[in-house]
Design brief:
The chain is mainly alpha-helical. It has a single domain, classed as Four Helix Bundle (Hemerythrin (Met), subunit A), CATH 1.20.120.1760. The chain is built from 10 helices and 2 strands, in the order ααααβαααβααα. A two-stranded antiparallel sheet has the order 1-2. It is globular and about 55 Å long.
Amino acid sequence: MRITRSIIPNLFTLANLFSGFSAIILTSDGNFKEAAIFIIVAGIFDMLDGIMARLTRSTSELGVELDSLCDAVSFGVAPAFMLYKAGFYWIDTFGVLLASLPALAGVFRLARFNSELTNMEDKEYFTGMPIPAGALTIISYVVFYHVGPGSEFFSTFGIGDISKTILLSVVTVLVSLVMISRIKYENLPRPTKRSIVENPLKFLIFIIGILLAFVSQGLSIFPFMLLYICFGVVRYVIKLIKEKKHLR
């Protein structure tokens, strides 16, 4: 095998896959919080492999395909398995189907992204919510609201296991739908001077989201991601209304 500069970003991509695999192992043992941490680590490696590819000028079609395969495991299969183990295991075959939805939708979205890829440059917007964002939405809900400290809030209002499973199903279906939708979602702002100058508001919101996550010990992540989803949907609906008015 010939050693080229592309091995550097590819190693980060494979680290993403290893983190996702580790998350699956931890989930099988019921360690959901630790598994969620590994999925987040996978997300960090996913971001770093792109940065390293641009720094080493080694972006390639191989790198894109490898990245998608690893993302399918870390942000598709791993969160789906967590859904099954944490909330859907007791409803048998239908539970398997529900839990698999984010993996199915995420893989479809990755394939669509690759088929529509025209260049290796960073995109300001993605068509459909990116699969790492979908994974973060799911694991933040499972860890902090379905089985974590937020579940006490549900118990206070007398929400039992069946109602919690229904809520988990709603989150699962919502995330799956927005991933395969044609709704535009913003890419993460890059920590560069140019990116900050061109998109100061986006960068500020991103920093605020990170700070809130630390201050709230993770409880704010799901509400923040829910706002991200809703903002994209509202903007898409407004765009459709404007287009219909323009056609009249």
